[in-house]
Amino acid sequence: MAMISTLRKQGWLVLALVGIGIVGFLIPYDAVMAMFGGPSDKVGVINGESIKQDQWRAMLQEQSELFSYNNSQAHGLENDVWNNLIENTLLQPEYQSLGLMITDEELDEILFGNFLSSYVKSTFYQGQDSLPFKEQMRESFKQMETEKPNLFIGYRRLVIEKRLKEKYDALVGAGAYVNSLDAKSLFHQSNDKASIVYVVKPYAQIMESEISFSNDDIENYYNEHKNDRDFKQERSRTIAYVRIPLLTSASDSSATLESLQAIAASFKANKTAKEDSTFAILNSGNPANGKVKYAFGSFPEPFNSQVASDSIGRVMGPFVSGGIARVVKLTSRGTEVDSVQARHILFKEKGAAGKAKADSLKKVIQSKKNFAEMASKYSTDPGSAVKGGDLGMFGRGAMVAEFDAACFNGKVGDLQIVETQFGTHLIEVTKKGAPKAVTYYAQVERPIAPSAATKKETYQKAIDFIQNHGDSASFRAGAVESYGGLTYSPNVRPEATAVSGVQNASEIIGWTYNPETEEGAISQPISVDDGIVVVCLMEVKEKGVPSLRNVYDRVKQEVIKEKKAEKYMAMMTGSSLEEIAGKVSGKVMTYENLSMAMRNIPASGVQETESAAIGAAFGLPTGNISAPIKGKGGVYVIQRVADVTRVESPDNYVSFRKDKMRGQKASAPMTLFNSLREAAEIEDYRFFPED
Question: What is Dmax (Cα atoms) for the chain?
Answer without folding.
Answer: 100
